[in-house]
Amino acid sequence: xAIWVSIFLTLTLPAPAPAQGEGVIExxxxxxxxxxxxxxxxxxxxxxxxxxxxxxxxxxxxxxDRQGRFTFQGLNTGADRAYRIQLxxxxxxxxxxxTFPRGESLIRIVTTVYETTTRDSGLIVDQHEVVVDFGADxxxxxxxxxxxxxxxxxxxxxxNTTARFPLPDGAADLTTGEPEVEAHFVDTEEGxxxxxxIMPGRNQVHYSYRVPYDGGELTLSRRIAYPTAKLDVxxxxxxxxxxxxxxxxxxxSGGSKTAYLHFQGxxxxxxxxxxxxxxxVPREISAFGGPTAETTLxxxxxxxxxxxxxxxxxxxxxxxxxxxxRRRARRAAVTGRSPRAGIGQPGGSEMERDELLQVVAxxxxxxADGLLHEESYSQLRGRMRERLRELWSG
Length: 394
Prior knowledge:
Layout: H1 2-12, E1 23-31, E2 45-52, E3 55-63, E4 69-75, E5 81-89, E6 92-98, E7 106-113, E8 116-117, E9 123-134, E10 138-149, E11 154-155, E12 164-166, E13 172-175, H2 179-182, E14 185-187, E15 191-194, E16 201-212, E17 217-223, E18 228-236, E19 241-243, E20 248-254, E21 259-268, E22 273-279, H3 293-296, H4 304-311, H5 316-335, H6 350-368, H7 374-393
Parallel strand pairs: 1-7, 8-11, 9-18
Antiparallel strand pairs: 1-4, 2-3, 2-5, 5-6, 9-10, 10-16, 12-15, 13-16, 14-15, 17-22, 18-21, 19-22, 20-21
Helix pairs in contact: 4-5, 6-7
């Protein structure tokens, strides 16, 4: 009889409740906008999600107190799960995911919220890199823009868009990354724009596109959307004539297989237009869509001055004056002497004759290696030799 009573009680009595977890999450909401009132973080709804095997479920909701603090208790501290703290402030969703460290039962979280603005005056570009390669019938352009929101507010924009990225005319096949990243951007009349709020701090955007190019003359124009500290444009050195009135040539850069003509602009104001002019058919293009090692390696044997002269045919003499003048200025800074007259200036010097003789020698070598068209070579060499005759006769 006692056995039957024991079985009956086992079947009818409620099972003991599982032990409650010992984990605790202590959090605080802070407002990162300097002039925001303390009351802005009071009474905010804070959601706690439990993440197990990639699935999220709402576990609890609480409200921030007068100091913006909140607490969740009784949580499982197992390594097989994580927790997401999520809240919304002025239409912007903030979330943080955490796991309990092994052997610990406390997580402390600080969530910083910001006031919002529809003005983009806080946006600047710290660095913008543009890399141009040549294909069979188009330019392939890759860009990296390091955009910084230097304000202490979140830029939410207007018309459901935020940061804008102008593209040159003819740009096609725009790619902004993985599918989930591409969902953050929409097309605009002048290029594309972000649809997500721009948080304070740095934000990087990678993208690429193609521009048709048949070897004739092409002007790649683009507007500067935000004040830009530094713009670097690197163009594959494949014998195409390249020039820009707004950017300064820096020399060759790149690895052992591909050399790039490096142009740079600094402290560019918003709304400025940058024009890069291309003319001429690129030399042999490899099956990978870029210049072959055979066509680019010879560039590395010549001084940047020669490459500069080569890529700006048609304005060669003024640019040569500029480069020679800078070289003398640097020498003067070391020796303490005043820079001497440049090409086309009265009072030519022995220093200038030496420099011009070196330029002529370098041009001869470049032409011998097939890096200069005959017409360009003859024009440049003729001008240099004419100036040499003036110096010797003077």
